[in-house]
Design goal:
The chain has 3 helices and 5 strands. Helix content is 24%, strand content 22%. Strands 1-2-3-5-4 form a 5-stranded antiparallel beta sheet, with helices on one face. The chain binds 2'-deoxyguanosine-5'-monophosphate (DGP).
Length: 114
């Protein structure tokens, strides 16, 4: 049997998460290993393994999670800016095989990333 990815288990409420937003298309929750004072993961409910697997029909949900990021950044007081990150596959540093967007803020973030 194929194992269910950890984010699907969060969607299904099989494991707990600190959820900050949910609608029919996506879920947002605090990252368990925060890299900034605010570190939220926004995930489509549809399982898309990784960014490289995106197809034309996924465009609306991708746009949607960006708009959710704008809403959450305002709600969470990220008035001086924030960063959105999607890690793809091994070289991108992706560890969970369910596409997710990181919303990071609350401090000045360095560039380039490691
Ligand atoms: P990435 O490296 O882009 O695949 O990011 C995966 C992130 O998911 C990483 O920052 C840690 C976070 N994470 C992994 N497992 C869990 C979990 O069970 N709950 C929560 N809230 N976050 C998790």
């Amino acid at each position: 049997m194929m194992s269910v990815n950890i984010f699907q288990k969060i969607i299904d409420r099989e494991i707990p998460a600190n959820i900050v937003y949910e609608d029919e298309k996506c879920l947002a929750f605090h990252d368990v290993r925060p890299q900034a004072p605010t570190h939220i993961l926004i995930i489509p409910k549809k399982v898309i393994r990784t960014h490289a697997d995106l197809v034309a029909e996924d465009a609306p949900v991708l746009g949607h999670i960006h708009l959710v990021a704008v809403k959450l950044a305002k709600q969470l007081g990220l008035t001086s800016g924030y960063r959105l990150v999607i890690n793809c596959d091994a070289d991108g540093g992706q560890t969970v095989p369910h596409l997710h967007m990181h919303l990071l803020g609350g401090r000045s973030l360095g560039w380039p990333p490691g």
